[in-house]
Each structure stands twice: as structure tokens, then as C-alpha cells.
Amino acid sequence: MSFLTVQKIHHTYFTKDTSATALSDISLAVEEGEFVSILGPSGCGKTTLLSIISSLLPPTQGTVLLENKPISTAKNDIGYMLQQDYLLPWKTIEENILLGLKLSKQLNEKTKLAALSLLKQIGLTGVEKQLPKQLSGGMRQRVALVRTLATEPKLLMLDEPFSALDYQTKLKLEDLVSQTLDEFGKTAILVTHDIGEAIAMSDRVFLFSPRPGRLHKTFHIPEELRKVPPFEARNHELYSSIFQTIWKELESLDQRNE
Amino acid sequence: MIRETNKVDLLHKNYLQSLKVEKRWVRFYQGIIFLLFFSSWEISSQNRWIDPLIFSSPSKIWNLLIAKMQDGSLVTNLGVTLTETVFGFILGTLLGTILAAILWWSPMISKILDPYLVILNAMPKVALGPILIVAMGPGYPSIIAMGAIISIIITTIVVYTSFKEVDPNYVKVLQTFGATRFQCFKEAIMPASFPTIISTLKVNVGLSWVGVIVGEFLVSSKGLGYMIIYGFQVFNFTLVFLSLLVIAVFATIMYQLVELLEKKLIKE
Fold this sequence. Notes:
The structure holds two protein chains of two kinds. Chain A has a domain at about 85-155. In chain A, about 40% of the residues lie in helices and about 25% in strands. Chain A contains ten helices and ten strands.
């Protein structure tokens, strides 16, 4: 059995006038320590799937198992990082990164020190007593990463966490996140619409087609790209050929829908 | 380089100076308006351009103020009204906020109560005065209830709206950490709505004064509202104006206190 198993997920949103199927028959598996990406145009149900996996949203049909247990029993094993940092603006950085520990009643001297040292490790020193608005966008997203990692989740969900940042910051953060996750041996699922980001960061890329969201194709990223940091992967000779392949696949999806 | 910084310093000094000058002019004109208002009031009353029996005059009001201070009746009445207003204000805001929290807690309750809130909000609350006085007796409780009831519903509606408008992603972040609904309320909804709650406080200061004064009109035994209605009945309009001015001063003080609280609570 895999680390994470998603079995035959269907999800439909109901409104007064319509019912919209966001996900249709999604099955996939992720191994421990693996980094996978879900790539697809808007409307392919990427965020819906993440919400289902992190048990924020009960699916219409299907099950999700984490280490062979239903995810509803493993709430604190899953960390979630959103498109924007959503640090609580009235709390200091320290209070923000300890939030998850506090809510799940795991806050003690040991976990507190671990969280604070994680903050240092990620290159933020002397900001503990500052408020989020005193920090730049990239710094805030790093704080959000620390906040997510502080509760030591086994599985990390990254919902387009770099999309609100400027390009340079984004590239730097990709490297940092990738390196941090490697160090801790975390399993992660990244949702993105950026083909390059998916290739540079992941071991596998799931390409989703829209309306309703389906798993269209899975791409395995070659070993050479997987072992180098994202920034170097983008400059690797294999990178552009994979980019082309995925690009063509996305194009064919577009044409099919027109 | 040094010359550059000197220049910037100088410009900054000039800028501060210009701010100071502007502030001085504002204060000057405010003072002028104050003086003009009271002196023209006094003069037109002295010369009988306006009826001194109805419009009184600042000097008469001043003399009455001294007299009422000496016999202690002003302080007693002011004390009564202030106590009632402060309690009515706190009670109204507190109950309104609690009600808003209940509505946020249960969308079902909120749907059920929606039309009733609309009706209660549209209804002129002071019209409930006679019923309150008969039910609770002519004294502090019914007047405090008047001060509170006038602001409860509007507080509920405004605060509930702000609870609903809190960015759902903050709640999502908390939920990913397994937060309960109460934890979401305490950590995100409540602190995010603090600015709105404070601004309803400002509105409620004014509203509670209205409720309490009307309550005192009806009960007619103590307080500044009683002084007004008594002055009206015996045709002593100097007393009416004195009460009005005292109300204006203390309502302003309460408003300033709320602003002070706002500055303290919302760290900029």
C-alpha cells in the first residue's frame, strides 16, 4: 500500500440552479518522501482535490487513505499552505508560527524551540517580535512555511504557494522549500498552473484536464532533474524537452475543449 | 553629502513648521466660532432680539450652573444620568456582540431570526419606553434597559456582518490545524472584527444617551432628562439649556474615551 492513496474520488458542487462536477473518478497514489505536482488549467479541480485530501471538504464519493487510515482520523498529519501567507496580522511572527501547535494542544517548550529554530534555519532571524506587515511577501511566505512545518505534518499540501510572489522571490523560494522538504524527508503535493515549477520541483507530475477535473496523464521526471535544486533543473538540457511534451499535452486538452 | 542631509533636514523642519501653523489656524477659527456663537447669543438676548424667556442667555445659564453646583442638585442628577448611560452603553454593546456571535455560530439560527431582526431594527425602540417602565418599575433598571435596547439590534447587525466578512482563508488556515469552531472564532473572527466593534462603540455612545434621556423624560424623577422636562414644564428654559450643554460636554468626553480605547486596542 502507498503512503497516500486517493481512490475513485468524485466531487460535485451543488447550487440552486446547477450542479457542477469538479472532480471525476480521481485515483492516484503518492509514496513516502515523494514530491508530486498537480498541474492543470483553471477549473480542473486542483484546489478541490487538496481540500478533500486535507479533509476540509468531504467528497461526494470516494475515499482517501493516509498510511492505510482514513484521513479524517489524521487531521494533524497534514499541513496546508495557501496561495497567500494568511498570517494573522494582529499576531507577531512568533505567535503566528506557534499557532498550529497551540490549536492542536502540542505547544510546549520543546516544540516551541523547534519552531523557533526552524525559523532561523529558513533564514529569518530577529523577526520573532515583529508583525507580519513589517515583512516582505517572500519573507511572509517563508513564515507561513514554518507555521505549516511546526506541527510536523507527514504530508504537506502546497496550493500555488508561490503564485503571489514576484519571479525572483519565487525562484529563490522554490529552492528553499525544495531543500527544506528534502532535509525533513517530507511528502508533498504541489498544486500549480506553472509547468516549469511543476517540472523543476517534482518527482512526478499529474496533468489534470478541466470540466470535469480528471487525471489526464502522469509524467515521470527523470532522475537527473530530480536530484538537483529547482533553479538548476530549469537550466538542465532535459528540462526543455519535458516542458515541450507537457506543453503539447496541455494544448491538445485545450483543443479538445474548444 | 553632508550638505545634502542638511538640506533634507531643513526641508523637513519647514514641513513640520507648516503643519504647526496650519493646526494653529484651525484652532484659531474653532475658537472664533465658539466666541461668536456665545457672544451673539448673549448680545441678542440682552437686546431682546430673541425672546430671553425662551432662548435664555449664556450669562443666565452660567449663573444657574454655579447655583446648581452649590446646592449639589446638578452633580446628583448628572451622576444618575452618567451611570445609566454608561451601563446602558456597555450592556447594549455587549449583548449585541454576544447575539452577533450566536448568529455567526449557527447559520440556522441566523436564517430563522433574520426577519425578526429586520423588524426590530426598523422599529423605533424609544416607543417601547412606557412598556419597559411599567414592567420594570420607574427607576434605574428600566432607564438602563432603554439605553441598552436602543443599541442592541444595530450592534448585532453591524457586528454580525463584519463577522461574516472576515476573509474565509484565515479560517481555512486554522481549520487545517484542526481548529474547532470556537477556536476559529477566538483566533480569527473576533480579532479581525475588532475595528468594526470599536466603531459601533462610537455609534452606541450617542444612541445610549438618546435612550437614557428619553427614559428620564418618561420616568421624570431624576437625572438630566428630568431636568429638561422639569424646566420645560415650569417654563424655565435656562435650566433646559444648562442640561443640554452638560449633556453635550459629557457625551463628548465619553466619545473621546472610546477613541482612546480604540487607539489602545488597535495597534497601528
